[in-house]
Amino acid sequence: MVSNGEQIDYSSTWKHALEEDGWYRAHVALRADFAAIQQMLDNFAAQLAAGKAITRAQAATADRYFKSFHHFFEHHHHVEEDIAMPYIQKRCELPAKISAGHKELEALLQKLVEQLSALFSPEAQTLEQQRPLLEAAAATFSELRPLTLEHLAGEEAEAMPLMRRYFKSEEISKDVVGKIVRSLSSDDLGVFLRTLSLEEFRAFAKQEGMPFFIRWIVGYQVSQYKKKVWQPFERECLQASASA
Fold first, then answer.
1. Which runs of E-coded beta strand occur in the chain?
2. Is the pLDDT of residue 92 over 60?
3. How far apart, in whole angstroms, are the C-alpha atoms of residue 76 and residue 125?
4. What CA–CA distance (Å, rounded) separates 140 from 112?
């Protein structure tokens, strides 16, 4: 670890903005999915209030989407704990609250997983069955979302600037980003990169030194995620339920 008396600051050598880092982009993806889940819960609440039960098609697409989100959220925490944070802490101390915050969020997330699993199960088909399950899930989500957003903002304000101060961009791309991207499943890649435009994706791939054939594979996997997971969810749970 670098001693307190040793002055190191690589921040000015980074050629792209902090908001273009893979770490920050993962946070953008999580924020987008938290907004989508909030909209889903609000739409379902309005639908039930109108006397229309959540359909099996809605439940199936919501369950598929939420499982992808859940896996990415947990994976994000695990790669922070297992790859990013140990690497950064070779040269500087990171705030202890980051790791502690992960444990609190994961406990709430697991509670939400169980509640939504019950809501989306074939056993919950009537209004009377769905209402209390939706209310419980919405209550847990109302705790999880602000805590998560606060946690993400804390990492962006404290951990990310430390990473840029003590490490060169090339070091992070090779020893952190490369390992993390290789550990992502097809759905993880879809969640991670869904919100990027084609131009943003190309710029990110170039920034991280992604070979063309890898870029093509990743782009294909993202398109498949959108086609098989995001678009059916958007159609059934964000658009259809809003007009039901």
1. none
2. yes
3. 33
4. 6
